[in-house]
Amino acid sequence: MLHRNGWKCIPKAPEFKDSCGGTFSEIRGKIRSSTEPYSDCVWHIQVKPKYRVTLIFTKFDVSSEHGCNENYVEVLVGNKDSKGKFCGMKNPPPIISSSSGIITIHLHTDPNSVYFLPYFSAKYEASLKQPDRCYDKITGEGNITSPAFPKRYSSFLDCTWKISARKNQHVRLFFDVFDLEPTKQCLFDYVEIRDGRNKLSPLIGRYCGSRTPTANFTSSGRHMWVSFVSDNDGSGLGFLAYYFPVPIANKTPDTSTQQELIH
Ligand SMILES: [Ca+2]
Question: Which InterPro entries match (predicted)?
């Protein structure tokens, strides 16, 4: 969660600056969009590559009439990996740059917009990358766990497992233990399961909290992608899941995962 002790123990961040864009290289800082009208503002957070950056929006009012096309904030990690265009009144989820020390924030406003000037404020924190290596390509059968399991997992994790089966096989996965920080819509800590070989594959489900997902997740093809993300504060015991290949003939669609994508 955002307002527990994680942010209280650190020295005061540099003062707010109302600005239309800029470059930030300090280890932490705060950004506030300009109160003057501009059509495009771009902020760059650029710290040393050995750091990862967590960006947290603290205020957000970017109303837009036509989806997120008229007014929006787009966040890119490493200059080109877009984490999405955000609009509306809700704070976007925390953005973690795990592979580089660069985050770019682009605020676009349409001068013809009927809404008041879009506005946001955000803060960021750079931390040394975790020694935990939690990226793996795996086959056959086995288990995957959150780092340090069964001890509580640490902050700022961004783990992925690409599980593959042989031709004419599917990947099946089920959870035995599950205890993640609970949040609405699983915005902060979560496990995501995707039907395919990468993070863009169709989402099977996104889970958090302490209710163990009961489904047997089965990929439609040979690959399943599992990711685990934790934010700056609030932890749990993590998870333990088992995976194994199943022949195509044994695949039974699991309808329970289709009803509720976020738990
Ligand atoms: Ca957390």
Answer: CUB_dom, Sperma_CUB_dom_sf
Could you say which of 84, 101, 128 is where a domain stops? 128
Domain end among 65, 94, 128: 128
Number of domains in the chain: 2
* 117 in the same domain as 31: yes
Q: Quote the ligand 1 centre to 186 CA distance (angstroms).
A: 10
Ligand 1 (ion): residues with CB under 5 Å are: 181, 188-189, 230-231, 234
179-218: string of b/e by CB count within 10 Å (b at 16+)? bbbbbeebbbbbbbbbbbbeeebebbbbbbbeebbebebb
Distance 189 CA to ligand 1 centre (A): 5
Model confidence over 61-86: pLDDT tens digits?
998 887 898 899 999 998 778 989 99
